[in-house]
Write a structure and sequence with these properties.
By secondary structure, this protein is mostly helical. It has two domains: 49 residues; 50 residues, no CATH class.
């Protein structure tokens, strides 16, 4: 017949905490991956939808380097606009048109 000691209970509790922490980290990783993929999808959709505009700009003299710089600047602007550490909620800033 077995009995539970304080040490056995503490060990089981630590193991349970480790399992819960591992599950939490895994879920956080999946959510982060989904967020990154969502952002990449939004940027690629924006580029694909503006293909004609880019072609028109190149037809009037924009070089590939200038187009690349434009895309990088727009990406940087989008990253800054949706930066969580900006101190304001993203949805309120978007609704108000603030940057």
């Amino acid at each position: 017949m077995g009995y539970l000691t304080k040490e056995v209970l503490q060990k089981e509790f630590k193991n349970m905490i480790n399992v819960i922490a591992t599950i939490g980290i895994a879920l956080s990783g999946v959510i982060a991956l989904i967020g990154i993929l969502n952002f990449i999808n939004a940027i690629l959709t924006q580029i694909i939808s503006r293909k004609r505009e880019f072609a028109m700009l190149q037809s009037i003299g924009m070089t590939n380097d200038q187009l690349l710089k434009t895309l990088v600047c727009e990406l940087y602007r989008d990253l800054r606009r949706h930066q969580p550490s900006s101190g304001k909620p993203v949805f309120l800033a978007d609704a108000a048109g603030l940057e």
